[in-house]
Amino acid sequence: MSVFAVARLELRRLAVRPLAWALAALTIAWLAWTFILGLGQFVGAQVKLAAVADAPGFTDLVAIPLLAELAKLAFLVVPLMTMTQLAGERRAGTLALLASTGLSPSRIVLGKYLAVLVWLGLWLLATLAMPLVVGVASTADWGKLAAATLGTALLLATLAAIGMACSAATGFAAIAAAMALIVTLALWTIDRGAQAAGVSGGFLEWLTMATHLQNLLRGLVSTADLMWFALAIALSLVLAIRRLGADRERQ
Amino acid sequence: MTGTALLNVDAISRRRAGRAAVSDVSFSLNGGEVLGLLGVNGAGKSTTLAMLAGALRPDRGGIRLAGHDFVAKPAVARTLIGWLPESAPLWPELSVDEHLLAFCRLRGASRGAARRAADGMTERLQLGPLRRRLASVLSQGQRQRLGLACALVHDPALVILDEPANALDPVQVGELRKVIRERAAAGAAVILSTHVLAEVVTVCDRVAILHEGTLRHDAPLRGDESGKALEATFFGIATGAGA
Phi, psi (5° rounding) for residue B209? Predict the structure, then answer.
C-alpha cells in the first residue's frame, strides 16, 4: 500500500537525519536525568510516605511526572520533527516529484504522519522503559500508568498532526515549526484568561488541550477526552491534506 | 488531435503569478515518438511539463493519457509517467540505490520487482560505482543521471524530460540520446524540453515550439535540412519575426 511506501521512505530519511538522532539523544538524556532525580527524591521520602495513609506511590511521584516532562519537551521536539515533512519537501521540489508518482495528497500526508508517529512512539517507549524497569520491581499502579501513557501518546499524535498541518501551510520549514509551536501552546493554554477571571467550565475549557491530558495523567480515561484528541488529529490531518491538494491548483 | 494517441493534450491553460503561463496548448503524442519542446526562458515549457506530469492542474483544458482523463484522475500517472523536472530534485539523505528503490515502491512495485528494476537501471545508466553514495554528495551531472534513472526505473509509457542534458559532459549527453532513442524504440513516448536545438535535431521525431505560453509550431523533423530550417523557425518565433 502506498501509504506504507511513503512511511518507509520517510522513516529511512529520518533514520539518517542528524536532527532526529540529536533530538532523541538530548531529550532522552534530559529525561533520564529527570527520572534519576525523581527516583532519588522518592527513595529519600520513603520514611515520610510510610507514615501517610494513601500516600502517593512510585507511579504518582516518579513515572507520571516523567511523562509530564516528556509532554513538555514534545511541544518543542514535535514541531522540529514535522517542520520539514512537507514544507522542506515543497522548497526542495521533491513534493511535486512525489505528487507525480500519482500519490494522492491524503496518502502522502498519512504516510509521512505515520513515519513521524513511529519515531515518536519509539521516543515514548525509550522514556517509558525507565519507570517500567523500576516498576516491575516495585508496586507501580499499572492502570494509572497505562492511562498516563495513553494520554501522552495521544498528545504526541495531536502535536504531530498539528505540525503536519503547519508544515503543509508553508514552504519554509522554520515558519512551519514556529507556527506549530504557537498553535499548540495556544491550544494548551487557551482558557487561561477565563481561569484568571474565575470562570471554569464551558467551551474554552473543553477546547484546552491541558484539560484532556490532565485527566488521563490522573488515570481517568473518558470517551470525551479521547474524542477531543481524535477530533484534533482528524481536523489537523484534513487541513494538511486539503492544503497539499491545493498545491496542484496554486503553484 | 489523434483519438488513439497515447497522450492527447486538449487546449490546456494555466495562470501562474498573475499571468497566463500557458494558453490553449494542444497536441498529441503516440507511443514511440520523441517530441522536442523548444522555447526561450519563460515560454511556458516547464509549466506545460508540470501539468503533463500531474504536479500542476490546468485551469482549463483536458489531458487524456492512455484513454484516461488524467486531469480528473492524476493517479493514472502512477505507472504511466516518468518525469525528470528541471534541476533534478532529490532527497539528500538517500543513496542512489535507495532513490531507485523508493521510486519503484512508491509506484506500487513489490520489493523483488523494485530490486530488479533498480539493478537494471543502475546497470543501464552506469550508476554502479555511485550506488551507495548519498545524493547530497553527487556532482550536478551525477544528480542529473540519477534523476533520469528515477524517471525511467518503472518503465513508463510517457517519459517527460525537462532539460535532461543540464550539467552532463559530452559523453553523457551521447549516452542520454541513446537512452532516449532506446525508450522510444521500446514504445514509450518521450517529451524532451531543451534550449539546445542540436539536441532536438539529433533525437527528436517532432518539434513543438512554445512562445509566450502558446504553441506556435508543431511539425515533424525530416532529413538533414531540419537543423537549419528549425533554427530559422525558432529564431523567427522567438524574436517575433515569424510564426
Answer: -120, 125
